[in-house]
Design goal:
The complex is a heterodimer of chains A (about 450) and B (about 230).
Chain A: H1 3-12, H2 19-27, H3 33-36, H4 39-43, H5 51-66, H6 68-73, H7 87-94, H8 102-106, H9 113-126, H10 132-144, H11 152-170, E1 185-188, H12 193-196, H13 199-210, E2 217-218, H14 230-233, H15 236-252, E3 257-260, H16 264-277, E4 286-289, H17 290-299, E5 313-317, H18 320-326, H19 330-339, E6 342-344, H20 369-376, H21 378-387, E7 391-394, H22 397-410, E8 415-417, H23 419-426
Parallel strand pairs in A: 1-2, 1-3, 3-4, 5-6, 5-7, 7-8
Helix pairs in contact in A: 5-9, 7-9, 13-23, 16-18, 17-19, 19-23
Chain B: H1 3-33, H2 50-60, H3 62-67, H4 69-93, H5 96-103, H6 108-139, H7 141-144, H8 149-170, H9 176-187, H10 197-212, H11 220-232
The chains are: A alpha/beta (about 450), B mainly alpha (about 230).
Chain lengths: ~450, ~230
């Protein structure tokens, strides 16, 4: 099949669904509201970053082949054919949308351009044009179960290191069980957390210890990374394969609860797509997020904290996949308010918060570093600066990477980490919080 | 009755009505039948009261209000006045409204001046907001660069209807008995068309609009129920 045929076939298929895409193809009134709410267009008001202009790459072909007005009136109604010479350029276009869904929040018709972006990326994937970084991440995680390609040994070494750290901090043994069959909870942290951002994992271990449930949970040496890049490349088969891996491991370990870590898109795929879509039928376990779990424990007074361990001003960045796509907004704030002395919200926040500029997988792409620093991350820098916060908590590995790089690039002087990191530093164990080494200023 | 007038006022109404109805039915049916395998929930989702959310969006545009307040001002007054004028045309084509108001104890003079006042204001608001929307589309880069000819055409067609309507409203007395007779003659399939050029122009544009709606983006007034329902559903 020629490239053109592949594109036309993929787009004309939308006439039979999914319903959202068919409607989005036919309905946009071209009012321009989305552009005012898009983090990319905010950073650079170029036509190529105007959301409907990007979506029109697909829409114009749909109009030409699937609508009466497009067939007869062509360019007059914005219809047009595939231009094979242009397809390589589609890569830059569809990989400059952060998929944050802010456009959908403000669109008078609720048109979600991120769905069209994902369709565009799916077409690129069919054409073999998916950027190498993304392709590589998927290959590695399908092979090793994690996006870093870390071995089982490396994971186990990292876990022992964390156990030693906690011993130093509290003077007692706090275990992180690995591969324990029949444990009640299976904890799956976000991408790279155990290796590079370990305090969230120690936070979870400490909570289980305080609850006297130190032997009722486990991690998996075969699945310690919730990331699912199939969501980002638009390849449904990859997305399901990566997801199936996690579901099968959870079943094998006979866990009752799949406790998802601070990773927005992983939780979204599990909770909003796989579970309601019944990809693997009825599940023998429930899916919960660690922030909901912890916030509930705090609400029920099961945990106590020494806030004086966290005196710096702290703000929370809402990952798009948690706030807009899963409705998890209050829980991280409840945790931060309970564990920090000076919590400050940015404006706007919650479901209206701006994207970090690295969403939909862009954060992992070094080729987009300049774009992310100078264009898509502009608004985030302004927002965080306005709060005066010195610690930015972000419950997402991609957001963290992006905000860390924004910090380096714009020399803003922030520390960036997770939500449970703050908990790990302040939680009371036997009447006192961690005696913590200073990792950073 | 000239041949042209008969085509516009005697034949075209049937064609326009048929095309409009057939087009609407086929579009709604297609949307209704197209499968949606996964939910697309966007938070804060409407828990349980999804239709309340959809109706709020339909009548008050709260998402747009949060997103672009100036456009909300233009758009809401334009749409609301359009709906008001659409309902107001009941009085143009039937005596029902008059009878209802007479029953409420109003005099024919009061009804006429009420209608002239409300209709006049509506005519001016529509013209003003319509022109503002057009100026906005032409003047703002981010809107102009995503606009196709069809986006201007929809507005220009509406403005043509509004201008010809305003001419009739403000250009001397207009005999409602004529339009009521015309509407009745259409219903009895024996069209009698009032030979008034401005009236004929007005209904020509209006009928073009109705024929165009099912095949154009103006159908957003139907699609809005589907898109918001899909995205706000929990």
């Amino acid at each position: 099949m020629s490239q053109k045929e592949t594109v036309v076939k993929s787009i004309t298929a939308l006439d039979n669904g999914p319903k959202v895409l068919k409607l989005y193809m036919e309905m946009c009134a071209k009012c321009g509201t989305c552009a005012t709410q898009c983090p990319v267009y905010y950073g650079d008001e170029s036509r190529k970053y105007n959301p409907p202009d990007r979506s029109d790459l697909i829409r114009r072909i749909f109009k030409k082949y699937c609508t009466i007005s497009g067939k007869f009136l062509g360019p007059l109604v914005g219809a047009g054919d595939v231009d094979e010479a242009e397809l390589q350029g589609w890569v830059d276009r569809f990989y400059s949308c952060t998929g944050c869904r802010r456009c959908a929040t403000y669109c008078p018709f609720g048109i979600d351009n991120s769905v069209i972006t994902r369709k565009g990326r799916a077409i690129l994937d069919q054409l073999g044009l998916t950027p190498a970084t993304m392709k590589k991440v998927i290959e590695v995680s399908l092979k090793t179960g994690n996006t870093d390609g870390a071995s089982v040994e490396a994971f186990k070494a990292a876990i022992s290191f964390l156990e030693e750290e906690m011993k130093d901090e509290h003077g007692i043994d706090i275990k992180i069980p690995v591969d324990v069959e029949g444990a009640e909870y299976l904890y799956v942290p976000p991408s790279g957390d155990v290796l590079v951002n370990p305090e969230a994992t120690t936070g979870i271990a400490k909570i289980f210890h305080v609850l006297g449930m130190g032997d009722k949970w486990t991690m998996s040496s075969l699945y310690f990374d919730g990331a699912n890049y199939g969501l980002f490349t638009g390849n449904d088969a990859d997305m399901k394969k990566e997801n199936q891996n996690c579901v099968e491991i959870t079943k094998k370990l006979k866990a009752k609860y799949l406790l998802m870590g601070e990773c927005g898109h992983a939780y979204r795929v599990m909770k909003m797509m796989m579970e309601p879509g019944k990809w693997w039928g009825d599940l023998p376990f429930s899916i919960i997020n660690c922030m909901e779990w912890t916030a509930d424990l705090i609400h029920r007074n099961k945990l106590q904290f020494d806030k004086s361990k966290n005196t710096r001003a702290v703000t929370y960045h809402d990952p798009c996949n948690f706030a807009r796509s899963c409705g998890i907004v209050e829980e991280p704030r409840a945790i931060l308010k309970a564990t920090c002395m000076d919590y400050r919200d940015m404006y706007p926040c919650g479901a209206e918060n701006w994207c970090c500029g690295g969403g939909a997988g862009l954060s992992a792409m070094d080729s987009l570093h300049d774009f992310r620093m100078k264009v898509s991350g502009t608004k985030k820098v302004e927002q965080i600066r306005e709060t005066g916060a010195k610690y930015v908590a972000a419950a997402c590995a991609n957001c963290k990477r992006q905000i860390i790089q924004l910090n380096e690039y714009h020399k803003t002087g922030w520390d960036v980490g997770g939500v449970h990191d703050m908990l790990s530093r302040s939680i009371w164990i036997d009447g006192k919080a961690a005696n913590r080494k200073e990792y950073e200023a | 009755m000239s041949g042209m007038a008969f085509v516009v006022g005697g034949l075209m109404p049937y064609a326009a009505a048929a095309l409009f109805l057939a087009g609407m039915v086929s579009r709604f049916r297609a949307w209704y039948k197209t499968p949606q395998p996964a939910k697309m929930t966007l938070f804060p989702a409407a828990e349980g009261g999804m239709w309340k959310d959809v109706l709020a969006e339909t009548f008050f545009f709260p998402s747009l209000f949060k997103g672009d307040r100036v456009l909300w001002g233009f758009a809401w007054f334009f749409h609301a006045t359009l709906a008001f004028v659409f309902v107001g045309h009941v009085r143009v084509f039937t005596g029902l409204a008059d009878r209802a108001m007479l029953a409420l104890g109003m005099s024919p003079e009061t009804i006429d001046s009420l209608s002239a006042g409300a209709g006049g204001v509506a005519g001016i608001v529509l013209l003003a907001t319509g022109v503002l929307l057009l100026v906005r589309r032409l003047g703002m880069t981010r809107v102009r660069e995503i606009s196709a000819f069809s986006d201007y055409f929809a507005l220009l067609l509406l403005l043509a209807i509004i201008v010809t309507g305003d001419f009739m409203r403000f250009g001397g007395h207009f005999e409602l008995a004529d339009t009521r007779a015309w509407a009745f003659s259409l219903l009895t399939f024996s069209p009698e068309v009032p030979p008034k050029p401005m009236f004929l122009l007005h209904i020509l544009f209006a009928q073009l609009l109705f024929m165009y709606i099912p095949f154009s983006k103006i159908l957003h007034f139907g699609g809005i129920f589907f898109t918001h329902a899909l995205i706000k559903r929990r």
